[in-house]
Amino acid sequence: MRTAAGTGSFCSNVDIRVVLMNSAEAFAAVALAAVACDGVLGRDEAHALRLQLEYRSLYSSSSEAAMAVLFDQLLKVLRGQGVTGLVDEALPVLSPRQQQSALALAAHLVHADKKVTSEEQDFLKQLVSKVDLPENEAKMIVVAIEALNRDMLDS
Asked: What are phi and psi of 132, to 5 degrees?
């Protein structure tokens, strides 16, 4: 994350610092928000998050230490701004195609533990409404991922 400093036009003695994410950080931020949206970071969800990121080209060459730094930074934003703030900071950094992938991954991670809470359902609904995709496309992504993760032996 890069920091941009500037002064607000309304008060010249106030220093404003804005943390800018790059696309790798923003993509990971949406994924982290998905696993944290219910207030519990479960072992299955954390494992799924790690596996999903380490196989993507943006992260495949990152060391354990670099990934730890990335998640420490994202967790600071999450603690300070909450899930909504983290997503709102991340989405504008991502292209529509990256947002499409981030939405699919978020839906997959929400379903990783086979239990979707009302908080997780609300998170996905909000994410669908925020991504820069046609609404029907965004909804269909979530429906497809839900179907993919459904265990047909369950009634």
From this structure: -85, 65
Q: What is the pTM of this model?
A: 0.83
- pLDDT one-digit tens code per residue, 10-38: 444 444 334 589 999 999 999 999 999 98
Residue 6 and residue 140: Cα distance in Å, rounded?
A: 41
Domain boundaries, the chain: 16-149
> What number does CATH give the domain 16-149?
1.10.3680
Helices (H) then strands (E): counts for the chain: 6, 2
Pinpoint the alpha helices (H) of 64-134.
64-90, 96-110, 118-130
| The dihedral sign for the CA sequence 142, 144, 145, 150 | positive
